[in-house]
Give the backbone structure.
Amino acid sequence: MLNLNTSILASLPVDLPPVEDQRRIGALLGALDDLIEVNRDVNRYTANLQLAIFARHWDGEQRERLVDVAAITMGQSPPGDTYNESGEGTVFYQGTRDFGWRFPGRRVWTSQPSRMAGAGDILVSVRAPVGEVNVATEDTALGRGVGALRAVGRPATLLQALLVDSQLWDMHQGTGTVFASVNRAGMENLMVPWVECDDVESTLAVLDDSILELTRESEDLVRARDELLPLLMSGRVRVSEDFEVA
């Protein structure tokens, strides 16, 4: 029976670029990694700044019912045989598996979406863990584990309202054998912290745009890095001898 073990793997010859080329490749890829990490650090700082701005203007008491400040869409899963991972149809989120730090990642699509969210809508996990939040960057199909919020006039304010209070969803978290979830009535009656100020909304919105721009730049850098690595290691693409990291 054919087999492959570590001894065989250890004896296989591997083509490598010359050492100096390897160093330049490492420097180039390292520079890309550094830039990606800088973008992430800036985004984390910007997000903390947003929370601080909201908290500074919130009096600690004013709250609004969620249904009064946002249109609510509860998810509904399409038929299971319409799912695919090949990019056919509409990107689909069933729960938090594909949630990222601020924006979700694309993994599953459906050819038969039932409930939809649009770009800029806030995605909220309505099943354990209840209250996890992301922001849609495109038209998105919603499964039963996700709801969507479309703010009436103050989308940037609403996002911070959902993030600023760590106990906001406590009453909907499961205990013991109870599965944590929140239904439409619970969503509608959720009392969210609120700031009614145009200047706050405009400032938060500018910072939202900055976070999205840097996130997309980082995604482009990751793709470029991952595409370059095999090309550089195979010698099909070479780093110039004049290349230096500033």
The mean pLDDT is 94. The longest helix spans residues 19-57. The chain is about 40% helix and 15% strand. The helical segments are 6-11, 19-57, 66-69, 155-164, 184-188, 198-234.
